[in-house]
Structures are given as C-alpha cells and as structure tokens.
Design goal:
- There is one protein chain.
- Helices cover 90% and strands 0% of the residues.
- The chain is mainly α.
- It starts with a helix and ends with a helix.
C-alpha cells in the first residue's frame, strides 16, 4: 500500500513538473505572439493581443488545473486512510486502498466529462 502511495506521489510530482513547464511555455508563447503582432500591426497594444490569446487558451489551462487538483484530493484521502487504518489488518487496508482508488478514478473521470 505504501509503495502504491509513493508511486502515486512520484507521478503527481512528475505531472506537476510537466504541467508547470507546459503552462509557462504557453504563457511565454502567448506573450511572444502578442508582442510580435503588436510590432507588425502597430494599431493595437501588446496587452490587447495578450488578453485575446489568453482568453482562447484559458479553458485548456483551467481543465489542467482541475484535473491536477482532483488527483491530489484522491491522494490526500488515500494518505489519511493509510494513517487511520494503521492498526487494522493488512487485508482491510488493501481493500480500502483499492476501493478508494477505484472511487477516485471514477470521480476523476466524471469530473473531466462534466466540465
């Protein structure tokens, strides 16, 4: 159970790192596109183009954040269950962990469908 938890934490850290890099790359790309468009078309400001492109990509960024938060919530509940059931038999801990994992994945799937 603890190995599943540590591998889950490792996956969250990798996903968070890639998500940070992806969001940073998207923001830099938006700024550069807005800057070059403001240079080529001198009738508008960089701020106008930045807001325009950011509004186009905002739904993607919001979904990435919500998916990460939902996955972190499932891991937090798993961590609490591990420490509450520390004195229980190992079979019960495993059953609770598997049940929580299944419920968390179902909730995550439904969350991505309903957004």
């Amino acid at each position: 159970m603890s190995s599943a938890y540590s591998s889950g934490i490792r996956l969250v850290k990798v996903y968070a790192k890639w998500k940070r890099n992806l969001v940073l790359t998207i923001i830099i790309a938006i700024f550069l596109i807005a800057f070059f468009q403001a240079i080529f078309y001198q009738d508008a400001s960089v701020k106008y183009y930045f807001l325009y492109y950011h509004s186009l990509l905002k739904p993607i960024l919001v979904h990435l954040r919500r998916i990460l938060l939902a996955f972190l919530a499932v891991l937090a509940i798993l961590f609490v269950v591990l420490y509450i059931t520390h004195s229980m038999p190992k079979r019960t801990i495993g059953a609770l962990g598997i049940l929580l994992y299944i419920i968390g994945n179902i909730l995550l799937f439904l969350h991505t469908l309903l957004i």
